[in-house]
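Because showing beats explaining, we let one protein speak, sequence and backbone structure tokens together, and leave readers to judge.
___
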Amino acid sequence: MSLVPGSVAEHTVCLLLKLGQVAFRLSEDQLDDLGLRVRHYSILQALVDNGPQPQLGLGTYLRIDPATMVSSLDTLESAGYVSRARDQRDRRRYLVQVTAAGAAVLDRANEGFDRLDARMLEDLAPADRAALHRFLGELASGSTLPALYDAVREQPAPKKGS
């Protein structure tokens, strides 16, 4: 049975929405064994990719709101995966950096994501997998979709039941 049955599947955005929900759920499940969530993974990977970052700048880079960023960093710090220290150039802010334990758990998470990628996309030929990755990367890094998302994020949340 299709994940997106009937004419709902005629809309690309509906396909992306359901597949995104499935990918998120499977990713959270894969990371659960490591005590991580997707946002924790994103933080660790960003720190490894970019080096130590100011806490606020890291949240902006990842589009994670400040309250969620603080909570996520508290969790990662308690687990020993990141450390926060005052920035020597600007004592008002904290720099976040990944620890050796954080880098090790990130390696395990990336191995898990490699397996999950292969499993989730096994119905596609290798060339189609590469094309899908390229197309999704173009959407994620283009000018349109990030701007649309940022504009919606800055709006007040809709009231439930409206």
